[in-house]
Amino acid sequence: MPHKIALNFEDGITKFIDSGESESIADAAYRQGINVPLDCTNGVCGTCKAFRQSGEFDPGSYIEDALSDAEAAQGYVLCCQAKAKSDMVIDILASSGACKVKPKDTMAEIVDVKALSAHRIRLSVKPLEGAFPMFLPGQYVNVTAPTETVKRPYSFTSAPGADVATFLIRNVPGGKMSAYMAATAKKGDRLVLNGPFGSFYLRAPRRPILFLAGGTGVGPILSMLEHLAARGANDQPVRLVYGARNDADLVEVERIEALRARIPKFTYDTTCSGPGSCHPLTGHVTDHFSAGALNNGDVDVYLCGPAEMVESGRQHVAKLGLLPANIHFEKFAPASEAIAV
């Protein structure tokens, strides 16, 4: 049976291909119009070396000069030799342009657009034909309103494969897309979604996970949580610390609570940092996790939010003196910096 392979390129574009168990990853990619870097086809040159994020495979045969034992142990594969034995996620060590990959346009229509607070909007859309392009939980698309000249990147908050895709949008004063979403957008309006893009996505859970989210940075983490809930049993503890400046902007908490019931070992805390907050927990995200959350370094950390929040989170983790096994982050920056998240 064919397996689905996600190819992640250095410029953030992801392309999904189907691969049979009898064909190499490179042959499957070429058959579907993607020219992964390749100088030979017999495991000699090493040009097609890529990094396996997840998935099972037959490594094939090759010489030590092309792929050393140490590199293979780290997770590298040769695309001209490796054959998928399950769905896989692979980092291609080249840009999508070098491999002649074009991001896909999907025409969609608005199902719902709802103001969750003065500064937060939830957008729900469905494709006009077929399904949305596959994406990894945490990735984004560039969204364009056909009647507008502006496009903006928004992360999916829904799980891959959902019939309706959702996005959490920050309403930025003076922002063109924000003005459209807040005052003009309505059910039935058509949008163009271009992508998917981004290297901030959920890796296969092999150890405890710590999610740190600020403002609308909770959006891609919601997609990750939805994916964890949809895939069923997960033995690893999952913790989320989610913060906003204003109480009213701490949105989607009911959704997070519903996810807590669906994900084993999932816990979360919410906090507000603005003056005069009435929230049970106040302060910044970094005020509400300590060294214990890092599990002696055996943890994957995902950080997403405004640039200053991400940097303070990284600095706080460093000060705790326990280097995480992996730390992934994405900084959200609006087109206009008129207000702070």
UniProtKB/TrEMBL annotation:
InterPro entries per UniProt: 2Fe-2S_ferredoxin-like_sf, 2Fe-2S_ferredoxin-type, 2Fe2S_fd_BS, Beta-grasp_dom_sf, Cbr1-like_FAD-bd_dom, FAD-bd_FR_type, Flavoprot_Pyr_Nucl_cyt_Rdtase, FNR_nucleotide-bd
Domain 2Fe-2S ferredoxin-type: 3-96
Keywords: Dioxygenase, Oxidoreductase
GO MF terms held by the record: 2 iron, 2 sulfur cluster binding; dioxygenase activity
Domain FAD-binding FR-type: 103-203
Swiss-Prot/TrEMBL cofactor(s): [2Fe-2S] cluster
SUPFAM superfamilies, per database record: 2Fe-2S ferredoxin-like (SSF54292), Ferredoxin reductase-like, C-terminal NADP-linked domain (SSF52343), Riboflavin synthase domain-like (SSF63380)
Coiled coil segments of this chain: none
Keyword Oxidoreductase: yes
NCBIfam families registered for this protein in UniProt: BenC (NF040810)
PANTHER family to which the protein is assigned, alphabetical: NADH OXIDOREDUCTASE HCR, PROTEIN RFBI
Name by which UniProt lists this protein: Benzoate/toluate 1,2-dioxygenase reductase subunit
